[in-house]
Model the fold of this input.
Amino acid sequence: MERSTVLVLALVGAFGCTGQAGTGRASTSTSGATPGGLSGGQSASGSTAGQPLVCTAAQAPAFHARMLTPSQYNNAVHDLFALTGNFAAGFGGGADTQLDDLGAEQRANAAATVAQQAAQSFATWAPCDPVKAGAAACEQQVIDRIGTRAFRHSLSDPERAPLVAVFDAGVKEKDFATGVEWFIAGLLQLPDFLYQIAKPAPAEQPGQIQPLAGPDIASRLSFFLWDSLPDDTLLAAGAANQLADSTRFQSEIDRLEGDPRFLNGVGSFYSDWLALSGFAEVAHDDAGFTSAVAQGLQASVLMTATQLYNNPTANLTDLFGGQTYYFNAALRTFYGLPAGGAGFTPATFPGEARRGLLTHPGLMALLARPSETNPIARGLFVRRGLLCQEVPPPPNTNIPALPPIQQGLSTRDRLEQHTTNPTCKSCHNLIDPPGYAFENWDQVGRFRTMDSGKPVDTSATMTNAGDLTGTFPQGDAFLQRVGGSADVHRCFAEKYLVFALEHVLSTDDQCSLKQVQDHFVPSGDLRGLVTAIASSDSFRMRLTEGVAP
Done:
């Protein structure tokens, strides 16, 4: 083993990991909630497990360590060292992420790659010049500046000492640049960088609700709103405990929402909620549907959602009702639209009655089979993604295949033949009707009125669907109702809260959920939803667990 590797491993071991490790960001793509987004057995009347929901005192769960997501890792590297790249490729993420041997090796390799590139581009990000300031003085500036930003708090003497040791070892081994490289390679493998952590206060007693410490809430706020590290202003406010003041806290929320990096945080939510990583596996039989088209659709879905947030009055009805998408040249060619210049520019589909994100060609392509539409996948998106309903998996039996594609037999005809089987019928009566509402858009999201020689039938009846229950004569009538549904608003608020808290909601989160939903349902204010979540007790506070003996 190389000497540099031994030193870096010793550095990592010197820090260890304090606090209880979580399991990464909880997925928002499915939920075990009932219609309207009330999870954990809570009913629409505001009770949990049959008991009234009492919110007279602050309630919050414990704050367990959670590993940075791949996008947070990449964004942090960019903010620290002005490097751009997918350094976290293959890291994985989501609710099941744990740092096993493979994950540790991947992060060690990523840290080495970042360290090498950062050492080579030292002048672009460093706070000093070792020739002008002197090597020893510059080393201390680099450690203090980068260490504080990476850890999201001022370095204590015990934290600084091993960082100095590994930097000095690299200098002694070869030169100043090697010291920089070894320092960064070690720093990026330490728990205080890789995890969001709320360390217990000395002599902390368990069972108390208290605000997150200044540096901890600064870090949490930044990773939520920017998907990256706090900047100097937010770090300073956290260190001075100024974020405990509600006025200053709100001013920081406003400032972060006014920064271009806010769209990174918004985009991270939509990537998670819509499971956009699935585009890596999307393939369609249509001529011209290349990887460039798939990648373009993924970017277009994200841009179509996030660009709304540049408007201070952006509303959920805009998200589910707009007619404008963002397409590049590859997408315009594939969908037969007029040229629109370089990059992603606004595009419309005249006469197709599109319903914003709901009928975005990318989402339709993501929720389809290679050669046909998939009402099941699209219906599940409505039930799980828009109504927060739990849909049980198919029974552990042999599920009959759909009849083969043939002229004169539409996708709906074939699916209805399939669901005459009693084993399949009960679930499909819930799943298929909302899926039929999207049948005017084929497997790549093109508008159609015919399917296999038959007129498309998008009518259906929704059951057990909250305020979306009822019959709709055509799919557009149903999709139009989605944007104004109070139950969809409740579910969307819950999805965003789960994303922000990075855990499945518990009993301790129910008052915060109610507070957020009560704010969002009547307003639909997308930016206001972010503010309401960041201001909630579950986000700003924690349940103490005491100090380990």
About this structure: The first helix runs from residue 3 to 15. The chain is about 50% helix and 5% strand. Residues 14-24, 30-47 have pLDDT under 50 and may be disordered.
